[in-house]
Design a protein that fits this description.
Elements (H helix, E strand, L loop, with lengths): L4 E6 L3 H12 L4 E4 L16 E2 L10 H20 L3 E2 L3 E5 L2 H17 L4 E5 H7 L7 E5 L3 E3 L1 H14 L3 E3 L4 E6 L4 E5 L4 E9 L5 H7 L5 E3 L2 E8 L10 E4 L10 E4 L5 E4 L3 E2 L9 H7 L8 H9 L11 E9 L2 E3 L9 E4 L6 E5 L5 H20 L1
Parallel strand pairs: 1-2, 1-12, 2-9, 5-15, 12-22
Antiparallel strand pairs: 3-8, 4-8, 5-7, 6-7, 10-11, 11-12, 13-20, 14-17, 14-18, 14-19, 15-16, 16-17, 21-22
Helix pairs in contact: 1-5, 1-9, 2-9
């Protein structure tokens, strides 16, 4: 029996697109299936557009390794592909003595990961870089930057197609059969596609798809992150990127991001979401997730950001947008802190990519290369 392609990539976000590009460059015939009409509409385009340097992640972890490698490659590709970006740098601000201690630890972690351009700076240097920011000290990350995320995703797609990958939208997976040699993937809008192996790069849906196929080691643990935006008249209060010292493992905290378009974002928040109702339909969220606080969203953002930016006022803020981090947890409730690659058990040739949350966008070029290498090993 012949196959339509060597590899099927499920998921048309930035990770799936780079997996398709690298697999095609490795000599595989590739089909990418995206369930929606448009590509990258979920987590890939609902973030702050930051290219992370690799400060926060456990040394030796996939996140640390892939973020540092991906950061370098994102800049190289953005230059080559003419995608708007800025290597603007980031200030990680210490507001207390405890925060200052954390800055030293983050610098050590970043350097252990191979991140370059890290420097501890004084209050005077903070004032020179960001006059409106308050802080006792800061960690300056030279290689953190911002990028036009939709443009970068479109460029990856174009190059994946040039490399020979067939990119199909409106192709939600309805079922998968395996005869011991060949996978038959049934889709709602594109019929049945056959292949030698599949990559599950469906982001928020990855754990659920793995469970549907009988691999239930991990469960979805989606976390919603919301943003506010500052009205254009006051967007000049920040020049580049300003972050607090992280206060939890759930997120990096509400931070201030100046995008490539000059918009000033405040966020994201972090709210766990019931996987059964996780959706990007705002009305469903408002109905299903009443806020713990009765304060309107703008006041919540103000309370988080004002210690960093005292000049920020409630009237400067407007509702922004939100994204959902595709976190996963184990059966015992432990939330995964790393990117997880797992081949499906029982010889089913499906590679699951689980927990590919931030910094997956920055890491995506290196993730794609990892995926291609794992496919070569499996199909050799």
């Amino acid at each position: 029996m012949t196959v339509d392609a060597d590899i099927v990539i499920a998921g048309g976000g930035i990770v799936g697109m780079f997996a398709a590009l690298r697999s095609a460059e490795a000599g595989f015939t590739v089909i990418l299936l995206e369930r929606d009409i448009r590509f990258g509409e979920l987590a890939s385009s609902r973030n702050s557009g930051v290219l992370h340097a690799g400060l926060y992640y456990r040394p030796g972890s996939n996140k640390a390794r892939l973020c540092v490698a991906g950061n370098r490659e994102c800049y190289e590709l953005a230059e080559r592909w003419k995608v708007t970006h800025r290597r603007c740098g980031k200030l990680l601000i210490a507001l207390t003595a405890d925060d200052e201690e954390q800055l030293h630890k983050l610098k050590q972690t970043g350097e252990a990961n191979g991140a370059e351009g890290l420097k501890l700076v004084t209050r005077e240097r903070i004032a020179a870089l960001e006059p409106n920011i308050t802080g006792e000290a800061a960690l300056w990350s030279q290689n953190t930057g911002i990028i036009d995320t939709p443009a970068f995703l479109a460029a990856v797609r174009a190059h994946a197609e040039q490399a020979g990958a067939l990119i199909l939208s409106n192709a939600e997976i309805e079922g998968i059969d395996h005869d011991g040699r060949i996978l038959s993937i049934r889709t709602a809008g594109r019929g049945t596609v056959t292949c030698r192996a599949m990559v599950n790069a469906t982001g928020m849906a990855a754990a659920s798809l793995a469970q549907a196929l009988g691999f239930d080691e991990y469960e979805p643990y989606p976390v919603r992150g919301s943003y506010a935006t500052v009205i254009p008249r006051h967007a000049g209060m920040i020049r580049n990127l300003v972050y607090p010292v992280p206060s939890s493992k759930m997120s990096l905290g509400v931070h201030l991001t100046k995008t490539v378009d000059g918009e000033l974002l405040v966020g994201p928040t972090a709210e766990t979401v019931d996987p059964a109702i996780a959706s990007y339909k705002l009305k469903e969220y408002r109905a299903a997730l009443p806020r713990v606080s009765d304060l309107p969203p703008e006041e919540d953002f103000l309370a988080s950001a004002k210690p960093l930016l005292p000049a920020l006022k409630l009237e400067h803020l407007r509702p922004g947008y939100f994204g959902i981090r595709p976190k996963v947890k184990t059966k015992d409730g432990s939330v995964a802190d790393d990117f997880i690659y797992r081949w499906h058990p029982d010889q089913l040739p499906v590679l699951h990519l689980l927990g590919f949350e931030s910094p997956a966008f920055t890491s995506a070029p290196a993730i794609g290369r990892d995926v291609a290498n794992k496919l070569k090993q499996r199909l050799a």
